[in-house]
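Extended Data, record Cyclin PHO80-like
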Amino acid sequence: PCLTMGTLALDTEIVESDIFLTLGLIDLGKGGAGTPRVLSLLSSLLERSVQKNETLMESAQIKDVITIFHGSRAPTLGIRQYIDRIFKYAGCSPSCFIIAHIYMERFLQRTDVCLTSLNVHRLLITSIMVATKFVDDAFFNNAYYAKVGGVSTRELNWLEMKFLFSLDFRLYVSVETFLRYCSLLQKEAASGLQIERPPIQACRVKDNWLTKDDSACASTVTR
């Protein structure tokens, strides 16, 4: 028998639902406990990208394009810890992390900037904040996100403007693009390359970059 369009649509919906469940993008209500897996998968992907970029730049003696997203030194808080912290305090939906990933890719492509340990944290807080404002119904002001991200409000305002202008204010993400990036993270899960870590307790909100010496970070797992 021939396959009808209705059957094709149903199959597509099933595949999409499986991906969303894998990433923790679907709210299962009270039965759904724990941190969405998209956080650990995105962390793993970014960590490997940073490591590859820095290794390549060092071996080829390539100078990075310095932007306002670069710090003078890398924060002691790891990427996974930082993403977990943002998720805990920012209250954004898991889908925002997919959108933020897409925005980061667009920024890197338009600016020829390499993702490194010096810029990944500021790019994360900025892209997630922008994604939350664009996608979610409710969100906090920049002062709050600045405190969560460990930067000043003035700095985050500048980062947001630079980020938006670099994207030419094109924040729309098609369903096809969203699904493509979801599939990318699902492959990350299937590859088994990421290291599963115990849940990391987010630190209390402070005004600057947090360190592992913070007493509120006692349960942080060392990398």
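Summary. The CA atoms of residues 79 and 121 lie 7 Å apart.
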